[in-house]
Structure formats: C-alpha cells, structure tokens
Amino acid sequence: MKRIIWVISGLNRRMMKLLFALALIAYIACKYSAVDLSIQEHGEMKIEQRIDEVSLLSQKYPPVKFLSEKDRKRILITGGAGFVGSHLTDKLMMDGHEVTVVDNFFTGRKRNVEHWIGHENFELINHDVVEPLYIEVDQIYHLASPASPPNYMYNPIKTLKTNTIGTLNMLGLAKRVGARLLLASTSEVYGDPEVHPQNEEYWGHVNPIGPRACYDEGKRVAETMCYAYMKQEGVEVRVARIFNTFGSRMHMNDGRVVSNFILQALQGEPLTVRVPSRLFILCPFPHLLGNPEEHTILEFARLIKSLVVSRSQIQFLPEAQDDPQRRRPDIRKAKMMLGWEPVVPLEEGLNKTIQYFSRELEHQANNQYIPKPKAARMKKGRPRHN
Ligand SMILES: O=c1ccn([C@@H]2O[C@H](COP(=O)(O)OP(=O)(O)O[C@H]3OC[C@@H](O)[C@H](O)[C@H]3O)[C@@H](O)[C@H]2O)c(=O)[nH]1
C-alpha cells in the first residue's frame, strides 16, 4: 500500500512538474503573443498615424493648377534647391507640371523646397550633374552651379567641371529624350565689360586665367555647348544671362553684395564697400535679365543701411582682382521678344530680402537652424574636386 501511495505521490509529483511546465509554456506563449499583438497594433497605429500626417501635410501644399495630360510637362530643374532654382520650382509646380529637382546640396538646401516633399508631382534627387543622369523629361532647366564669387572660387576645378561636364551631360540627356534645355548663364560671361550697357551682341572681356575664370569661362563654354548641340544635333536650347540677383532663400553666407550688406546692417557690423558701380534685380528669368536701373555700391550700402535702420558704419575695402567695374543689362530685346522686364521695385525687393534675413537670424539665435554653406570635402586642407 505504502508502495502504491509512493507511486501515486511520485506520479503526482511528476504530474505536478508536467502541469507546472505546461502552465509556464502557456503563460510565456500568451505573453509573447500579447507582445506580438501589441507590436502589430502599434505598427498599424503608426501607419495610420503616418497616413493622417501625410493627409494633413497634403493640405499644406501650396495650391497647384490642374493640367491635362497633354499640357502637363515633366520638367527637370538642376540646382532646383538653390536660391533661384527653388523659386522656379514653385512657379512650375503651381502651374501644374511634374517637377524633378536635382541638386548636390553644395549651395542648395532641402529646406528651400521642403514644402513640396511628398507631393505627387514633385521629386527631389540628390545627384551631382557631373555624373550622367538617365531620366525621362520634356524640359530641362539647367541651373546647377555655385553662383556667388566666394562659392565658385572655393573649388574652381569643381566649378569648371559642373559647368562643362555637367552641361554636357544635361545636353546629352536633352538630345536623348528630345527635351528643350534652358541654360542659366550669367552677366559674368562679359567679364569686365568694355561696352556699357551690355547687350546680347557683345562678346565680353574675360581674363581666362584670372580668379573668376572658372565661372566666367565655364559659363561661356556652357553657352558654346548649347549652341553646338542646337546646330549639330537639333537640340532646342535657350540661354538666359542673369545679372546680379537677390531675394528670399538666398543663403546668408552667400557672399554677394546684397546678402553681405543686409547681414552686416542687421548685425551692426561695418558694410564692406569695394567698388564704384553695379545694379541688381529680384528673382529673374530669360534672355538678358537684370534691372537696367544702375546704382553705385556705395548708394546701395546707404540704402540698405537706411532700410534696416542700422547704426553700422561704411567701411571701404580694396577692390578685388578682376572685379567688373560696371554692369548694366540692355533689356530692350528681352522686353520686345519675351515681354519681360523687372516688376519688383528695388526697395520692395530689398525690404522682402531684409525680412527674410531677419527671420533667418532669429532661427539661428534659437538654434533651430545654423546656416552655413556645406563645404566641399577636404583633402589635406584643400577642397576636393570630385
Ligand atoms: O561685401 C561686398 C561684396 C561685394 N562687393 C562688390 O559688389 C559688387 C557685386 O559683387 P557680388 O559679389 O554681389 O557679385 P558679382 O556681381 O560680382 O557677380 C554676381 O553677379 C552676376 C551673377 O550672374 C553671378 O552669378 C554673381 O556672381 C562687386 O563689385 C563687389 O566687389 C562689395 O563692395 N562688398
């Protein structure tokens, strides 16, 4: 009997152990399936949340016109995240086109086009035009290149490559897909002009080995390439020579005269005046584009100082090498053939730019964003021309 009791209690002990083990397994299984479930639920919630966010965001896009399939163009803007390029992006997006922005973000910034990110007509590609690009488009606006003297002189070889190889790549693309290409050229193709004002027929006066040559000659070759592709390959091209430009989305450290003066005036630093004359325009487009109103740099410094109501002093600096003495576009042809002329009065343009820079400084003070141009990669203390 004792033996039987022992066997039963032995069995019971084993059974107990077995039951305990099963209970433990069941508990763990339950727990994990609960965890799985909560991960799944959480995931679903996240997706829903994201859809909500996206639909919320989509209400925030600037209004876009509806274009029929026939009228809607697929447009590539190289340098589309830059100061001029991002305004062009806005215009073409709002007109209802499909816009692909290509930028290597050397001087361009994502934040200039961030209000379009996620829109079905918009695409942003981090790409350097020095490398070939294979996409299907109807039109190309080729703006990619650093444009301010300190930026393009920072890495002259890279500036040359961008304007020569980059332009060749874009013309090759235009030829392959049958797209029309507009080149954003510059008043700098005139160098230090001997003709004043400058018109489309003037060939310029450029020092081919001076510090500005990488940009001036780079753009001159780019123009030559455009017309060679037009004559030899039948590519439809347009060239716009843009004069000194300013406006919102210009980089605070751009280094051009207007951004320098506004920043200096806002920060109470001396306004650094270097040469006697020059003129300006706010956000332009085709042909010889600039404001035919001419002002000396000193007049400009005084005007900005008064608009900012700044106590900054004016400081005279020695002239920079090969700095063009005078520039003024003769816009008669642009007006006649394109109906184009500047529409934003100088003071209004300056006031808008001052407001933009004031906001940028506030952002900087709040540490929300520290604006600095992204430097090219350095190799032994020197910029690399990758
Ligand atoms: O702090 C400064 C900066 C510039 N300047 C002077 O202001 C004049 C304008 O110089 P910017 O640096 O603004 O630029 P530039 O006019 O030489 O070239 C610009 O205009 C034509 C565009 O197509 C080019 O992309 C752009 O480089 C120059 O004479 C320059 O010496 C100053 O007096 N003080």
Structural summary, described in words:
There is one protein chain. This protein has 386 residues and is an alpha/beta fold. It has one domain: NAD(P)-binding Rossmann-like Domain (Rossmann fold, 3-Layer(aba) Sandwich). The protein has nine helices and 13 strands. The protein has helices at 2-58, 83-94, 149-154, 156-177, 213-233, 257-266, 297-308, 332-338, 346-365, and strands spanning 74-78, 98-103, 122-126, 139-142, 180-186, 237-242, 245-246, 271-273, 281-282, 288-289, 314-316, 378-379, 382-383. The strands form four sheets. It has a seven-stranded parallel sheet with strand order 3-2-1-4-5-6-10, sandwiched between helices. Strands 7-9 form a two-stranded parallel ribbon. Strands 8-11 form a two-stranded parallel ribbon. α5 links the parallel β5 (180-186) and β6 (237-242). α4 packs parallel to α5 (213-233) and α7 (297-308) packs across α9. It is globular. It starts with a helix and ends with a strand. It binds uridine-5'-diphosphate-xylopyranose. Uridine-5'-diphosphate-xylopyranose (UDX) binds at residues 147-149, 186-188, 242-244, 256-257, 260, 272-275, 278, 297, 320, 323.
